[in-house]
Structure formats: structure tokens, C-alpha cells
Design brief:
- The protein has 98 residues and is mostly loops.
- The protein has a domain of 63 residues: CDGSH iron-sulfur domain, mitoNEET-type (Ribosomal Protein L9, domain 1).
- Helix content is 5%, strand content 11%.
- The protein has a 3-stranded antiparallel sheet, with no helix packed on it.
- The N and C termini lie far apart (45 Å).
- 15% of the residues are buried.
- The protein binds FE2/S2 (inorganic) cluster (FES).
């Protein structure tokens, strides 16, 4: 099934994919209790290496595992009560740091 594009981001800063004056480096934002928002210039490819179609500059990638339009988020994470871990305290260097 070809992913639909109805929930590829949809927030501020979205726009159609196309030529731009300056390429924006990719930026991934981990949305609390929700998807990963990916902005900028990037390409999504499937396991076969083929590009996954998208029509927006910003997309929301499912990380709860229940979306029916993977790899994109369809908002179902709200219905299943998906929860992410709380953010690390600011003075913590994070996992893997000695
Ligand atoms: S993160 Fe939204 S449906 Fe999975």
C-alpha cells in the first residue's frame, strides 16, 4: 500500500517538496508521545532502496508502530495511548556517556 500523505507533518513550516533557494539540512524532532518530525532536505527509502514518495518538506514518521500508513504517522498513537520516556534531566550527560 502506498502511504497516503494526509498526515505528513501538517504543522507550521510544512510545504510542498520542490526546488528551494537554499537546501535546508535535515532536522529530526522527537515529538513527546508522538512521531518523529523530519524537516529539511532528505530522502526516505524503503528496504529495497527505492524512494518512498512524499509530497511535503516536513513529514511525521511513526514510532509507535500502529500507523496504517507507515512509515508515516496517521495519528493513531493518540488512540493507543503511546507514551515516550520523559526527557533526561538537563544536567545529565545522557546514556552512553562515561
Ligand atoms: S507515532 Fe503516530 S501513529 Fe505511530
Amino acid at each position: 500500500m502506498t502511504p497516503t500523505v494526509g498526515h505528513e507533518g501538517g504543522g507550521p513550516g510544512t510545504g510542498a517538496v520542490g526546488p528551494s533557494a537554499a537546501a535546508e539540512p535535515p532536522r529530526i524532532i522527537a515529538y513527546p508521545d508522538g512521531p518523529l518530525l523530519v524537516r529539511g532536505e532528505f530522502e526516505i527509502v524503503g528496504p529495497d532502496g527505492r524512494p518512498v514518495p512524499r509530497s511535503r518538506r516536513t513529514v511525521a514518521l511513526c514510532r509507535c508502530g500502529v500507523s496504517s500508513i507507515k512509515p508515516y504517522c496517521d495519528g493513531t498513537h493518540r488512540l493507543v495511548g503511546f507514551r515516550t520516556d520523559p526527557p533526561e534531566p538537563a544536567d545529565d550527560a545522557g546514556p552512553g556517556t562515561p
